[in-house]
Amino acid sequence: MSDLRIAVLGVGIMGADHVDRLSSRISGARVTVVNDFLTERAEAVAADIPGCRVISDPLDAIADPDVDAVVLATPGPTHDKQLLACLDHGKPVLCEKPLTTDVESSLEVVKREAELGKRLIQVGFMRRFDEEYSQLKSLLDAGEFGTPLLLHCVHRNPAVPPSFDSSMIVKDSLVHEVDVTRFLFDEEITSIQILKPATNPGAPEGIQDPQIAILRTASGKHVDVELFVTTGVAYEVRTELVGETGSALIGLDIGLIRKGASHGRSGSATWGGQITPGFRERFGRAYDIEFQRWVDAVRSGADSGNYVDGPAAWDGYAAAAVCAAGVESLRSGERVDVQMVARDSIPGA
Ligand code: ISE
């Protein structure tokens, strides 16, 4: 079978990383087209990839006959148009979160895909492919903790881009715990409340950081998340699941543990390891697994019409609905119910 020919749209840090992984670590695929709103940036990326061209209009890149499938790493506000173009051309797409930036357009995308009777859209919630999250999910599904009851999550970033405001902490950072909750518990989130503790004096003026998010699921399970994105330290993402018969904790970054004298001197024993500097390092392997599984699913999708192996358009819509309620709670301080249509009201979703 010939290699899947992929267009990568958006080659900032994340998209350029994806071009690199598709070109060096993923089998069965090659990048034939890149696009970016900064043409020079796209040209610099294409120059390193044999057989890769720049197409300056994103919709032309999607339509190009030399493209079988698309990776979207473009800014969120452009996603709805680009996703609809992928659906119009029947091209499978791996879309970095968010699916789209508002609930209505996310629902529109879900409906349009369902009308086609094919599953073409995968959403880039990479944590589902991380080995520790996968292990936790397998233990949970095997009943190792009895009935799952609670999740305690920590999501800390050393810093965020200057464009980040308080609502981005919900839409760009908390969105991962929203997806993790739905993935681990296999149920929808029905309400959310954002608490606003005293802010970090080191955070940029006007940003509510840290935040505490309290989620409640359809069966009444409780999830709490500490979001703190200006720690100045390193990247820390931890999840503790508490169940009826036990608990498990992942994301401890326990690398090298060293005991004994250091530097040849006695009496100066050390213990501990490195903390991951950023999400690209922490989840690098998860991204590789995600991309390999997506490429394999797309290459074998024609018979079944399913070109997805992972979170789908519905998961992107559900995350958008929870985050919209989260932004509302950030404003009001109240608990806000999540507004979603029933999944079975959209046949095929
Ligand atoms: C970023 O976009 C990510 O997806 C990271 O995983 C998350 O930790 C960070 O807060 C986001 O800004």
What does the model show?
The protein is of the alpha/beta class. Helix content is 35%, strand content 20%. It has helices spanning 13-24, 39-47, 58-63, 79-88, 103-116, 131-141, 166-185, 279-282, 284-299, 313-332; strands at residues 4-9, 29-35, 53-54, 69-72, 93-95, 121-123, 148-156, 189-195, 211-217, 222-228, 236-243, 246-250, 336-337. The radius of gyration is 21 Å and the shape is globular. The mean pLDDT is 94. Residues 157, 160, 172-173, 176, 229, 279 line the site of (2R,3S,4s,5R,6S)-2,3,4,5,6-pentahydroxycyclohexanone. (2R,3S,4s,5R,6S)-2,3,4,5,6-pentahydroxycyclohexanone binds at residues 157, 160, 172-173, 176, 229, 279.
Cα(first) to Cα(last) distance is: 30 Å
Share of helix, binned: 25-40%
Shape: globular
The sequence of SSEs as H and E is EHEHEHEHEHEHEHEEEEEHHHE
Could you tell me the radius of gyration in angstroms? 21 Å
Structural class: alpha/beta
- The side-by-side strand order for the widest beta sheet comes to 12-11-7-10-9-8-13
How many distinct helices?
10
Bound molecules: (2R,3S,4s,5R,6S)-2,3,4,5,6-pentahydroxycyclohexanone
Domain Gfo/Idh/MocA-like oxidoreductase N-terminal: 4-124
Keywords: NAD, Oxidoreductase
InterPro entries: Gfo-Idh-MocA_inositol_DH, Gfo/Idh/MocA-like_OxRdtase_C, Gfo/Idh/MocA-like_OxRdtase_N, MI/DCI_dehydrogenase, NAD(P)-bd_dom_sf
Family: Belongs to the Gfo/Idh/MocA family.
